[in-house]
Specification:
PRC-barrel domain-containing protein (chains A, B); alpha+beta; SH3 type barrels; homodimer; 34% strand
Chain lengths: 116, 116
């Protein structure tokens, strides 16, 4: 068997994958992913932030392109800041089908839009 | 709100998404997805086939590129045949990290490899 370094994960197991800051600080964990069914690309990681935001467990959708998977750490690394998360466009019901919100959110985080 | 036709689905909710043949026959359902953590692309849909294979519920990993999401049907459409599924390379433990198996499987189904 040619075992490779690439990491496939089951959609059942993404919950709880850890997310770290560039300095190695644990800042949260993935709660679930939002997947674009047509392209098969992950669009958002909905993350739970514990102490990071200092306001109890909060869930925020973070554009996938903001996260980098680091096999050595077994988790994702991001340069996300608390100010970025708190200043992100507010989401309402149906945010995941609201292209205007999606565009503003990707611009806010400074990452390429997943649908382009 | 600018609602769009694109469909995002939560990784928690992919279980049970239906898969139809080109002629509209229901051939199975998604059990879970296997996601490449580094690229954020879905690599496989692990599908459950009921009557389609006539041998009880069997789970088989199908390359994502073999499935097309059809919003109008609320499910995936594929030209997968029973012979293709039965003739696919056998999988062993660790198949999702066995690049040789992955290559043979994509060649068998005649679809582009997700990592290229």
């Amino acid at each position: 068997m040619t075992t490779t370094a690439h990491a496939l994960v089951s959609s059942d197991d993404v919950n709880g994958t850890d997310v770290y800051g560039r300095d190695g600080t644990h800042i949260g964990a993935i709660d679930h992913l939002m997947i674009d069914k047509q392209s098969g690309k992950v669009a958002y990681a909905v993350m739970g932030f514990g102490g990071f935001l200092g306001i109890g467990e909060e869930h925020h959708p973070i554009p996938w392109n903001k996260l980098t998977y680091e096999p050595a750490q077994g988790g994702f690394v991001t340069d996300l800041t608390e100010a970025q998360v708190q200043g992100a466009p507010a989401r309402q019901d149906g945010w995941y089908a609201d292209r205007d919100w999606e565009r503003r959110t990707h611009e806010h985080y400074g990452v390429p839009m997943y649908w382009i």
